[in-house]
Recover the amino acids of this structure.
């Protein structure tokens, strides 16, 4: 239970009366305070605040005025006091009464809590920066491995195939050569597919719109779920990080459609908005209650959110039982320095695979 002390001051700040409770709060007996200016005990940095308090009491006599200030203890340490002051209207000498309580421990607790909160904010910012760097490095590593698979390794496989085709020998050796050529060709196709899974070459060569179209076509072929894909106002000149982020979001969202939605059809829409690039992946599946999903169980959703957080974007998921699910990702167009990119014409649609 907090202890309160009562102090009566003259208008100039001299102590006229001090209740006995001051000894329990500050260790100072009332007679040591009476007759002395309160400013002898107030911290120099807080003196002006107390002077403003006294002036406010005189000027606004019918109001109560709060103030927090440091007060010197008998041992020389500083205690934090909270006082509510008002003018004594019945006092002909115009006294001011202060009801004060010690809030030192409260302030210490508040500072400790604030320090912990600031530490948590710093930790979160550091984790977000780490996640962003990991996603960037992962995409660059995938891109490099895919280039190696499509480049030097594919060339070596092609060279092996040519050597096998020109192997001299009898009929049996020729048959073995044909088998070897078939194996080499199969290996080449597998390497090409693996490179595409790691990082689609069309993403760099033709842009996000074309890469997503191929992704949707491959999803339909493998999963048997038709995907209606539409893109509007998307230029091939999107920043690589933005394109890669949205491509991975689409991959993850379609994977969730195949694994969880029990859907008959899906829709993927890529469009340009005033805020950036908007990707929407919708299905007509079973749906779910997003509020009922336990934190940490949806690692795919967590990965999508972290990817978009690293890109300064946002993710929203709308779903309900029996009404399907829609995942909407919005990524702002930022340059390498996290500044808005130069405007890209909204009517530009680059899809060279559709051109004749």
């Amino acid at each position: 239970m907090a202890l309160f002390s009562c102090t009566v001051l003259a208008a100039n700040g001299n102590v006229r009366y001090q209740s006995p409770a001051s000894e329990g709060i500050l260790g100072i007996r009332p007679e040591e305070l009476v007759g002395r200016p309160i400013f002898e005990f107030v911290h120099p940095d807080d003196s002006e605040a107390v002077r403003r308090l006294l002036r406010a009491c005189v000027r606004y006599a019918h109001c109560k005025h709060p103030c927090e200030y440091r007060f010197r203890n008998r041992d020389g340490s500083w205690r934090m006091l909270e006082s509510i002051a008002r003018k004594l209207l019945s006092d002909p000498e115009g006294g001011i009464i202060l009801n004060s309580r010690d809030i030192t421990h409260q302030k210490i607790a508040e500072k400790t809590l604030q320090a912990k909160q600031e530490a948590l904010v710093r930790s979160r910012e550091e984790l977000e920066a780490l996640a962003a760097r990991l996603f960037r490095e992962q995409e660059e590593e995938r891109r490099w491995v895919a280039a190696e698979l499509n480049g030097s390794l594919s060339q070596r496989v092609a060279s092996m195939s040519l050597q096998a085709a020109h192997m001299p020998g009898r009929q049996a050796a020729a048959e073995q050569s044909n088998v070897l050529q078939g194996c080499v060709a199969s290996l080449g196709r597998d390497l090409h597919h693996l490179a595409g899974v790691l990082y689609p070459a069309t993403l760099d060569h033709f842009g996000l719109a074309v890469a997503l179209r191929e992704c949707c076509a491959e999803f339909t072929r493998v999963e048997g779920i038709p995907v209606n894909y539409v893109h509007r106002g998307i230029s091939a000149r999107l920043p690589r990080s933005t394109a890669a982020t949205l491509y991975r979001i689409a991959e993850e969202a379609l994977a969730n459609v195949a694994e969880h939605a029990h859907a008959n059809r899906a829709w993927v829409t890529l469009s340009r908005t005033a805020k950036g690039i908007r990707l929407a992946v919708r299905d007509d599946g079973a749906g779910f209650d997003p509020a009922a999903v336990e934190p940490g169980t949806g690692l795919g959703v967590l990965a999508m959110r972290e990817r978009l957080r690293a890109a300064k974007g946002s993710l929203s998921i709308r779903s309900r039982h029996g009404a399907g699910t829609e995942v909407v990702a919005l990524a702002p167009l930022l340059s390498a320095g996290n500044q808005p990119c130069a405007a890209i014409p909204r009517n530009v649609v680059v899809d060279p695979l559709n051109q004749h």
Observations:
- DSSP finds nine helices and ten strands in the chain.
- Strands lie at 4-9, 15-18, 65-72, 78-87, 96-102, 227-232, 266-273, 276-283, 314-319, 325-331.
- The chain has three domains: 4-102, 137-198, 206-354.
